[in-house]
Amino acid sequence: MLWETIRLAVQAIRRNVMRSLLTVLGVVIGVAAVIAMVTVGQGSSAQVTAQVESLGTNLLILRPGKQSMGPGTREAAPAFRLTDVAAIKALPVVEVAAPVVSTSQTVVAGNLNVATTVTGTSADYLSLGGWTLRKGRAFTESEERGGSAVCLLGETVRQKIFGNTDPTGETLRVKNVSCTVIGLLGAKGASSFGQDQDDVVMMPVRAVQRRLAGSQDVNSVSIGLRNGVSTTRGVAEIESLMRERRRIAPGAEQDFQVTDLKQIAATLSGISTILTGMLSSVAAVSLLVGGIGIMNIMLVSVTERTREIGIRLSVGATSGQVLTQFLVEAVVLSLAGGVLGIVVGLALAALASGFMSIPFAPSPAVVALAFLFSAVVGVIFGYFPARRAARLDPIEALRHQ
Amino acid sequence: MDAPLIEFRNVSRIYGEGEAEVRALDGVSLTIAEGEFVAIMGPSGSGKSTAMNIIGCLDRPSAGDYLFNGVEVGQVSQDARALLRRHYLGFVFQGFNLLSRTSALENVELPMIYKGLPRAERLVRARAALEKVGLAGREAHQPSQLSGGQQQRVAIARALAGDPLVILADEPTGNLDTHRSREIMELLVALNREGITIVMVTHEEDMAEFATRLIVFVDGRVSKDERKAGAA
């Protein structure tokens, strides 16, 4: 009997395809919006998580400036020196520490002219930042000590200057320094903040300081803690060392900060979860509106089909059967809308994921939930019109024109 | 004759209250036996339609008893009356009352869906019923593609498909010309000869001639009740 009722409902819906489509449009949009939001949200969370994994364990970054949140509020503070890096490296809790000196430079090769970031650092930085070497080799210790004019190219810079050819052994000019390419870095893609991490040239820190920046400043220090050392303890030890070295009185505010990259990533991931939740709830409201649309049309349909209801009652349908018929019709309608919405939502999410270059991560649970939810919408908003149909008086209904 | 199929015992049907009270039926008692072909006539407002609705279990008496096949059914629940209609009664209306945009076959199938018959059996029986009313070959036609007479035949086939004891016809020829009317009446007479009891409301004397018994209502009471020896 239920199968019969479903068949009947499909028939009734197909009798007026255009109207049925317009009726469920609200549900389609609601479900599509929720599915797209959640899928894109999960994709970006997955990406952040993947980046955190690639960072390796216990990575800290030491920067000058006061502990504060948000851009533009950091006050100027003296930079570090290579001696600071050496002191940090000497701490028992620290495994490796790499200085970072970043400058914006124009790199020239032949008649090509490319603006990029030149980072002065040490070979340790590669493992700390999760960099791989696709070709060639990293800096040797003597190159680092002597500040030799050698460099490693990021994938973006290599593409711009050398295309797909092997750049190792080639020479290019950074500012006015002639520099030999000794290695090619593996591609890392965009960071969580959307900047291209491969648009970089790396040189030994002393080479950048002396030949490009003309100062002894170190902008930041990347620090890897020893295995088994807690982040809290690492941060505390580094802070107390730096306070001492920078002669900051006990109780005074420190002019540097130690950040835990994992913590930042976790915060980012948290923000994206909250945003996804908020946007999804806004989208869910349109599902409610879609349900009201279904109710509206079902009410019209009951009035239009009063005579049909009378006929059904006269041939022996019970009011329960009439109720079921209209309820099933509403549920079939909203389920069809739900399925359509799921398809549209997933397609939108796939498209958006492609544009934002984040993984496309459809969640079966969310899809199932959307399906269930649209069924519930059908039951709730179909009940009132169905009850009205079931309560019709057969004599009146038969007389209805 | 044995127990009557339809029995009214002092049945009244009252609409409204107090000053506005209308007695559509006023203490009517009558019996209809199985196999009869009864024509009910009377001026409008005489109570003939009300009597028909009560017989058809669409309405219930305000007072008195209505016995169907010896069982009091006047005051049973709405669902129980739906079951009575489903299993014992078939309706034919003046306005045909077919489902629009639905094929003749599917219209005839309708009562059997509620009877819970399997689809294969429904189709066989619906085809047989359509053939019986002379509409073989028009199974796929929708009501809008059929003439009035043909539509009424579909309606009769639908009433037949439920395998009823009684067919209730409310002005079945009211929307048809004389020629088509006679065809419909002949069809009803033929069904009656097969043993189906027929109760028909009409205001056309010509049509009432086909029946074996004539009951005339005036002001909610039976004013005339006569049996004829043979039908036309």
UniProtKB/TrEMBL annotation, chain A:
Main location: membrane
Subcellular locations according to the entry: Cell membrane
Segments traversing the membrane: 21-41, 278-302, 323-352, 364-384
Annotated ABC3 transporter permease C-terminal domain residues: 281-394
Superkingdom of source: Bacteria
Molecular function terms from GO: transmembrane transporter activity
Keyword Ribosomal protein: no
Keyword vocabulary terms for this entry: Cell membrane, Membrane, Transmembrane, Transmembrane helix
Membrane topology listed for this record: Multi-pass membrane protein
Recorded GO CC terms: plasma membrane
Residue ranges occupied by any MacB-like periplasmic core domain in the UniProt entry: 20-240
PANTHER family: ABC TRANSPORTER PERMEASE YTRF, MEMBRANE COMPONENT OF TRANSPORTER-RELATED
Protein family (similarity comment): Belongs to the ABC-4 integral membrane protein family.
Protein name, per record: Putative ABC transport system permease protein
Protein species of origin: Gemmobacter aquatilis
From TrEMBL, chain B:
GO cellular component terms attached to this protein's record: membrane protein complex; plasma membrane
A Pfam short name: ABC_tran
UniProt KW Ribonucleoprotein keyword: no
InterPro entries: AAA+_ATPase, ABC_transporter-like_ATP-bd, ABC_transporter-like_CS, ABC_transpr_LolD-like, MacB-like_ATP-bd, P-loop_NTPase
KW Endoplasmic reticulum (keyword) present: no
An example Gene Ontology molecular-function term: ATP binding
Record keywords, A-Z: ATP-binding, Cell inner membrane, Cell membrane, Membrane, Nucleotide-binding, Transport
Occurrences of domain ABC transporter (ranges): 6-232
Family: Belongs to the ABC transporter superfamily. Macrolide exporter (TC 3.A.1.122) family.
Name under which the protein is recorded: Putative ABC transport system ATP-binding protein
